[in-house]
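MODEL INPUT / OUTPUT PAIR
PAIR INDEX: 1
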Amino acid sequence: MDSHVREPRSRLIGRYIENWLNGVVDKQQAYADDVRLCYYAMHPDPCDRSIRFHDTGDALTDMRENRQIVMRRLRGKIKFECDFEEAAVDALPAQPRAALLQLLSARYGLLAVPVPQNSMPGVAADMARFAQEFGEAIRAYGDLLEGDGVIDERDDPSKLRQALSETDDVIAAATVFREAVKDALRKQGALDEV
């Protein structure tokens, strides 16, 4: 077990989402409604729902009340339920959701990359995507290394984030090929745990 003290998971998620919402009440209400919709989609049976969102039919009142339900949890006034965490993360747009998942994975020393979808466009399309992602990563690292040729804390944060993002894209594209090779070995009965 890791002995160092770290921020509680719920506080990390709440702080991240609040920073993303940036105190804009209208945005908070729309986000809270998205959380409600995600939560209902995850728990279609009302008997399975531990969180009681307002759903009276008065859209303005419901959004205002649901904003309170969500924000109390994000601010730590009410303990996060696991179901709430999933809905809160899933309700984020793709970019902030990916960034938050990176933070959560990093807590365990893991790298969050998208699971490759077993798409059928073929090897040529997958290879083209891999080559494109690799080229974009090379460009990002070229921009980052421009000047002193070193990656360190003095580099522009936006260039560092871009290089990290492009690296994740390369890893995701390469994972498609890795999984295809593992699948072929598995079908041959020749897969030693790789």
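PAIR INDEX: 2
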Amino acid sequence: MNITDMLIQMAQTSDASQPSLFPFPLGLHLTFVCIGAIFFAYRFFVQKRPYQLIMAIAIAASLIIWISDNSKTLFYGVGIAEGVLILAALISSFIFKAPAEAAETASKAAASDANSDENKSTEE
């Protein structure tokens, strides 16, 4: 079998012939989803960052693909929804990171102002 025959054989094989989408069974997928969703939900309750909650939802939403085995509409719909959720998590991680850093620099600036005011009062 040469490369041309291999490419022709791959082109003739339909996507629907694969019995499942994932290389592991539903039970293992469910286990991974539970671990990931619990982790991100816990981190959200500790740190209160929105991207963690969005990622917990995105991980849990990946189970929707198991509803139907051969529906390309469901397959692409879940893919688009997952992409939107991951993009929203990425954007929210940048947006909500900036106010935390701004508050941190403001507190450092206030502390340095307080120190400089103390130094001025002791010099007089």
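PAIR 2 NOTE: Helices lie at 3-12, 26-47, 50-61, 72-95, 97-123.
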